[in-house]
Amino acid sequence: MVQKAKILLVDDRPENLLALEAILSALDQTLVRASSGEEALKALLTDDFAVILLDVQMPGMDGFETAAHIKRRERTRDIPIIFLTAINHGPHHTFRGYAAGAVDYISKPFDPWVLRAKVSVFVDLYMKNCQLREQASLLRLQLEGGQPATGDAKESAGLLAELSARLAAVEEQAEALSKQLDESADAAAVATAAHLERKLSGLRRALDALEPGAGSGAGQVPSQN
């Protein structure tokens, strides 16, 4: 059974959380509510999340401050953050969102289809990342056990090939997206694409390190930060 990804929804208004759940329920993932920045940080202490949807305007700890805490923690600093805001104070306000570590900045009211599509991209990337790490762990165990080139090794090679093919498909989609963005001045979309490219590059390096003949570090997966 494939484990579902967790998506953290942070907003102080229950009706907004309900609306987000209605929009994202079609993704069939685990949606976790947090009604404040403090509650979000507590949830992040124990669970791993594919993406965080974070409201900017909240009493007490606002979205910017919450994001700053998230980015300072080693465990959570690489989780993509999508800011949601009902206000628009111009480029400076948007820049503050990106400076806080957001990969996207969406103004309310937003297009439900667009929001769902953007979240889906990060969920898919997260799932592939988890799958790669799981397979890398199995391969490391085989390498450390000194297993000969038997059927298990052949099966591992097949898994590597399958993972490489799946990653190549995502890389192709990301490349097509980047080409489309070359013709657009949407800073939010460009930032999202750049984040995806960094993650994909890290996954590709990790996968290449597991290929036969990759060298003495073949059993080690490089950092994907």
From TrEMBL:
<protein>
    <submittedName>
        <fullName>Response regulator</fullName>
    </submittedName>
</protein>
<keyword id="KW-0597">Phosphoprotein</keyword>
<feature type="domain" description="Response regulatory">
    <location>
        <begin position="6"/>
        <end position="123"/>
    </location>
</feature>
<dbReference type="InterPro" id="IPR011006">
    <property type="entry name" value="CheY-like_superfamily"/>
</dbReference>
<keyword id="KW-0175">Coiled coil</keyword>
<feature type="modified residue" description="4-aspartylphosphate">
    <location>
        <position position="55"/>
    </location>
</feature>
<dbReference type="InterPro" id="IPR050595">
    <property type="entry name" value="Bact_response_regulator"/>
</dbReference>
<dbReference type="Pfam" id="PF00072">
    <property type="entry name" value="Response_reg"/>
</dbReference>
<feature type="coiled-coil region">
    <location>
        <begin position="153"/>
        <end position="187"/>
    </location>
</feature>
<dbReference type="InterPro" id="IPR001789">
    <property type="entry name" value="Sig_transdc_resp-reg_receiver"/>
</dbReference>
